Amino acid sequence: MAQLITLSRYVLQGERAHEQATGDFTLLLSHLALAMKVVSREVARAGLLDDVLGKTGETNVQGEAVAKLDVLANEMLISVLNDLPMVAAIASEEDEHIRHTSAGRLTGKYLICFDPLDGSSNIDVNVTIGTIFSIRRRDETGCEATEADFLRPGSEQVAAGYCVYGSSTMFVLTTGDGVVGFTLDPQVGEFILSHRNMRMPDLATHWSANAGNSRYWFPSTHRYMGQLNSAEGRYKHTSLRYVGTLVADVHRNLLKGGVFFYPGDRRSPKGKLRILYEAHPLAFIVEQAGGMASDGVRRMLDVVPDGLHARTPLIIGNNQEVELYCNLVAADPEFVAP
Ligand code: AMP
Ligand code: AHG
Ligand code: MN
Ligand code: MN
Predict the structure, then answer these.
(1) How far is the CA of 133 from the centre of ligand 3 (A)?
(2) CB-CB contact of 166 with 141 (8 Å)
């Protein structure tokens, strides 16, 4: 029988490999996993509960309609993290400002960013959604963290991960030493190691973008799509898949090979996706799996956000396809840098 390795056991093994580890990081990861198990349970029965599907009627700081599940997932993550003394502060897509935790506002050495529910437009139609998180260490403790502590390059992340609530629930994690995936056994209530060493296949079998935005694209993005659709060479079998949930699109491309792009365009040169809790964590994971992520001009992990909710174009996936986009942009006189 195959050996069953739970997420807890895997993370404890990781802790032993770090001599100075106090156990804080392990506890933090297991609590993040717990929050996601609860969100997964709510997602699985969402259609049966009156208070889970639909909008709240409010708009968030980004001006987007807030779904009930956005709020539920946000509250779940906050309530779990709020009690942890190693967490100083939290930045969430759903909150305008950072939140200091009750237990760790002074002592905590970690800062957590998350998108509690990614793919909100897919909630009510039972299509894959997810949660994305990023863990950073702050420079000093003994005082409250400030927003500036969060506005740092993605290369400073200690760990990043996501959970996809799809046909099964998967938890994917990097602590800077490759990427591993766990699948939730809902009856047992445990994440079980299912993907030991996730590496992007070399060939991009899919490209993913909202081509409905092509009316606003720069000429270089049109050229890019043209190349990805060409009938000859590397792309002759490449096809299109777009879920409209960033984390689901990136997850598929991580397993199958592919490139996701949400570029800047004439309407919004800075694109749509948010740096701290969408682009940075996914860029860390994809790089750790052997791929690349860029804003078209810079390596995504080198980008420093100028606000908690700052946006960025994102081109992420196989190296060759990310480089191709960057080369086309560099030769496009109409391109506006983010
Ligand atoms: P800690 O003292 O537990 O907060 O850990 C200190 C650092 O060691 C963390 O920030 C991680 O970089 C690393 N570390 C600790 N535990 C683990 C683990 N289980 N897996 C991977 N890295 C770990
Ligand atoms: P969120 O649901 O967290 O606001 O994120 C939505 C994002 C991302 O998940 C997805 O890739 C993108 O929006 C889809 O945007 P379009 O509907 O414009 O294609
Ligand atoms: Mn999102
Ligand atoms: Mn979201």
Answers:
(1) 11
(2) no
Look at residue 226 and tell me if it is in a domain: yes
Probe residue for ligand 1, chosen from 13, 175, 177 as the CB with the greatest number of ligand atoms within 8 Å: 175
Whole-prediction pTM: 0.97
**Surrounding residues of ion ligand 4, Cβ less than 5 A:** 93, 115, 117-118
Note down the domain range covering 112.
7-195
Query: 63 — phi, psi (to 5°)?
Result: 80, 15
CB 281 within 8 A of CB 116: no
Cα separation values, 287 from 17, 99, 131, 274, Å: 22, 29, 19, 18
Hey, what are 53's tokens? 């599907």
Residue 159 has pLDDT above 90, yes or no: yes
Structure tokens at 205: 């079998």
Residues 46 and 101 in one domain: yes
Structural domain contains residue 231: yes
41 and 169 co-located in one domain: yes
Q: What is the mean pLDDT of residues 145-167?
A: 98
Convert the pLDDT of each residue in 108-134 to its tens digit.
Answer: 999 999 999 999 999 989 999 999 999
Measured in Å, residue 20 CA sits from the centre of ligand 1 at 8
Give backbone dihedrals phi and psi of 62, rounded to 5 degrees, phi first.
-85, 0
Ligand 1-lining residues (CB < 6 angstroms): 11, 14-15, 18, 20-26, 137, 158, 175
Chosen domain end from 195, 224, 247: 195
Owner of token pair 């260490």? 137
Separation CA 261–CA 25 (nearest Å): 32
Atom 5 of ligand 1: nearest residue by CA position: 21
* One domain, residues 216 and 141: no
